UniProtKB/TrEMBL annotation:
SUPFAM superfamilies: Undecaprenyl diphosphate synthase. PANTHER family: DEHYDRODOLICHYL DIPHOSPHATE SYNTHASE 2 (PTHR10291:SF0), DEHYDRODOLICHYL DIPHOSPHATE SYNTHASE FAMILY MEMBER (PTHR10291). Homodimer. One of its GO terms (molecular function) is magnesium ion binding. Mg(2+) binds at residues 18, 205. Belongs to the UPP synthase family. The gene is uppS. Its cofactor is Mg(2+). Catalyzes the sequential condensation of isopentenyl diphosphate (IPP) with (2E,6E)-farnesyl diphosphate (E,E-FPP) to yield (2Z,6Z,10Z,14Z,18Z,22Z,26Z,30Z,34E,38E)-undecaprenyl diphosphate (di-trans,octa-cis-UPP). UPP is the precursor of glycosyl carrier lipid in the biosynthesis of bacterial cell wall polysaccharide components such as peptidoglycan and lipopolysaccharide. The keyword Cell wall biogenesis/degradation applies. It comes from Rhodanobacter denitrificans. This is Ditrans,polycis-undecaprenyl-diphosphate synthase ((2E,6E)-farnesyl-diphosphate specific). Its EC number is 2.5.1.31.
Length: 246
């Protein structure tokens, strides 16, 4: 497989925004206080991505597993999503951000679903930066929904089973139309993927930082991008082969 040398600025960045609870605990405040504080960090990374020329930013806001949290925390998060959608969409729209939600959106109540759809429709024509918010999202869910679409296409007689290959199945995965995931960041010190973009992460560069999400700012993103720019992406080849082709 020949791969063009990836640019030094990642085209597509994904972030597991982790550490809100610990940030709040350190301040003797409820976990929801940390989630609220995380909104500022979201604004910071969006601004930084616009400035750096990143094309797509995918943020993990709520995992398919997070439904298992205490009911009051889930409720607080839903309230926060509603408030954030009511308050931030104007500003994002002004900045030319195209918003998209990925995940099992049917799991949300109607009021929230309507707001998500309205925000997507309103910003659909923007092209400065694509921001994807993953909610009720799981990487395994994504692979299952893509497989179901493949199976349905076969059942309709529009595709033969032997025609299903990586490229074809990949077309049904969330974010398939965007540049490939170049940089995967996780804040909050844990070194795990937690069922985020399993399919898409295959050849992403991973970056883990101890910084808790509410403390993550533009300088932190810059550091991650600088680190990324120093990586050699070999895609299975040798360093010598990469040097010749670049
Ligand atoms: C991430 O922060 C936000 C969500 C999962 C919604 P956490 O709430 O997981 O914070 P920690 O990991 O407990 O500090
Ligand atoms: C992952 O964080 C999900 C989000 C940041 C939205 P978690 O805090 O839920 O992950 P685990 O459970 O510690 O792996
Ligand atoms: Mg966590």
């Amino acid at each position: 497989m020949t791969q063009a040398k990836a640019p030094t600025v990642p085209r597509h960045v994904a972030i597991v925004m982790d550490g809100n609870g610990r940030w709040a605990k350190a301040r003797h405040r409820p976990r929801s206080f940390g989630h609220n504080a995380g909104r500022k960090a979201v604004r910071e990374v969006i601004e930084a991505c616009l400035r750096e020329g990143v094309q797509a930013l995918t943020l993990f806001a709520f995992s398919s597993e997070n439904w298992q949290r205490p009911q009051d925390e889930v409720g607080a998060l839903m309230g926060l999503f509603v408030r954030a959608l009511d308050k931030e969409v104007d500003e994002l729209h002004r900045h030319g951000v195209r918003l998209r939600f990925i995940g099992d959106l049917d799991a949300f109540d109607e009021a929230l679903r309507e707001r998500m759809h309205a925000a997507m429709t309103r910003t659909a024509g923007n092209d400065k930066l694509q921001v994807n918010i993953a909610v009720s999202y799981g990487g395994r869910w994504d692979i299952v929904q893509a497989s179901r679409q493949a199976a349905a296409t076969v059942a309709r007689g529009e595709l033969r089973v032997e025609q299903i290959d990586e490229a074809r199945l990949g077309q049904w995965m969330s974010l398939a139309e965007l540049p490939p995931l170049d940089l995967f960041i996780r804040t909050g010190g844990e070194c795990r993927i937690s069922n985020f973009l399993l399919w898409q992460v295959a050849y992403a560069e991973l970056y883990f930082t101890d910084t808790l999400w509410p403390d993550f700012d533009q300088a932190c993103l810059r550091r991650a991008i600088e680190d990324y720019a120093r990586r050699e992406r070999r895609y299975g080849r040798t360093g010598e082969q990469v040097a010749i082709s670049s």
